[in-house]
Design a protein that fits this description.
The protein has three helices and seven strands. By secondary structure, the protein is of the alpha/beta class.
C-alpha cells in the first residue's frame, strides 16, 4: 500500500537524479529534498550521482542524513526494477525515521 501511495501522490524533479525511466503520475507533491537515491534498470544504486554498493546503502544514508531535521529521501526507481528493491529502501527509511517519496514523471 505504501508503494501505491507514493506512486500516486509524489512527483518530483531532482537535479542530482540519474536518468531512469520513471512511472507516471498526475499527482504533484512539493517536498524539501535532502538526498536522492536512484536504482537503474541494471540494478545499480546511486546516492545523488555517486554509485554505491547495495550492501552499504543504509550506512551511507545514515552518514549523509546525520544531523538533519526531518531528513528525507527522494527515491528514483526505473519502472522495470522489481518492486522488492524499492521496498528494501523504504524499509531502511522507515527504520531510520526518514521521510521518503517516490519520484514519478508527470503524465
Amino acid at each position: 500500500f505504501l508503494l501505491i501511495f507514493f506512486i500516486l501522490t509524489s512527483t518530483l524533479i531532482s537535479p542530482n537524479a540519474l536518468k531512469v525511466l520513471l512511472p507516471t503520475s498526475s499527482a504533484k507533491t512539493a517536498s524539501k529534498k535532502s538526498i536522492s537515491v536512484s536504482i537503474t534498470a541494471d540494478l545499480k544504486y546511486y546516492v545523488n550521482t555517486r554509485q554505491v554498493d547495495e550492501a552499504n546503502i543504509e550506512s551511507i544514508l545514515k552518514q549523509q542524513l546525520a544531523g538533519l531535521d526531518k531528513p528525507g529521501i527522494i527515491l528514483h526507481v526505473d519502472k522495470t526494477v522489481p518492486v522488492e528493491h524499492a521496498v528494501k529502501l523504504m524499509d531502511i527509511a522507515n527504520r531510520n525515521g526518514y521521510e521518503m517519496v517516490l519520484a514519478t514523471k508527470p503524465k
